Structure formats: structure tokens, C-alpha cells
Amino acid sequence: DQCYYIRHAALIRSEVEIDVEHFPPDLAIEVDHRHASIRKLPIYVSLQVAEVWQWREEKLLVLVLQDEQYVAVPESKSLPGFPLDLLRDALSRRKEVSQTELAREFQRKLT
Q: What is the pLDDT of residues 6-30, one digit of tens each?
């Protein structure tokens, strides 16, 4: 699991310790091998993490926080225009080629 600051990145960049109550992460990304993310969503709600991407059961879900619960949406609000279909394609091929090759392919498709 990883959390990222997008909207407040410049404000927290120089901080040694980040007060998540004042600056919650904008995006959490989870690769879920054992359905553990389901139990983590209430924690993200309490922290007010605006968006969660979950890779679970070979599917990428984009969830945004609305009225204290996460709702699946077709595209990212934190990274509008991000090519989620390209990411889904790369993730689905992760057992066929190396991570390095997947990253190179993904980068080529972006340009």
C-alpha cells in the first residue's frame, strides 16, 4: 500500500512528519492479495483520503470518497486524464513480462 499527496504536495514536501489530520493523502493505491483492502477502507475514510485505487481479483477499481463512503467511479478525480485503461492492460500482463518491460511499454504508450 502506498499513499500520495497531489493537491498538497508542495506544502508537505519539506515536512519531516506529516499531520494527516490537516493534510490527508489525496490517493492511496493498494495491491490486494488477500482482500485486506476491504477492512482498510474505514481507516481511509477516517483519514479523509479522497481516492483509493484497488487492484483486486485482476481488476483495478477507482474509489472516491463521497458522503463518508467510497464509491466506484470510471476515472480518477485526483489524476484526471490518467490512462487507467493502459494501466489495467499493463497490470493484466504482469505475469507475462518483467516489471521493467511493463514500465517501458507503459511509458512508450504514454508518448
A: 988 888 888 778 877 778 899 999 8
The closest of 60, 63, 62 to 90, measured between CA atoms, is 60
**1 CB-near residues (< 8 Å, 6+ apart):** 28, 29, 30, 31, 37, 40
The answer to whether 65 and 72 have CB atoms below 8 angstroms apart is: no
Q: Enumerate residues 6+ apart whose C-beta is below 8 A from 81.
A: 75
Residue 58's pLDDT is what? 84
pLDDT digits (tens, 9 = 90+) for 40-96: 889 999 999 999 999 888 889 999 999 999 999 999 999 999 999 999 998 888 889
Of 27, 37, 82, nearest to 59 by C-alpha is 37
**CA-CA distance, 21 to 12, in Å (whole number)?**
13
The position carrying cell 474509489 is: 63
Strand ranges, E, within 1-111:
2-4, 27-32, 51-56, 59-66, 69-72
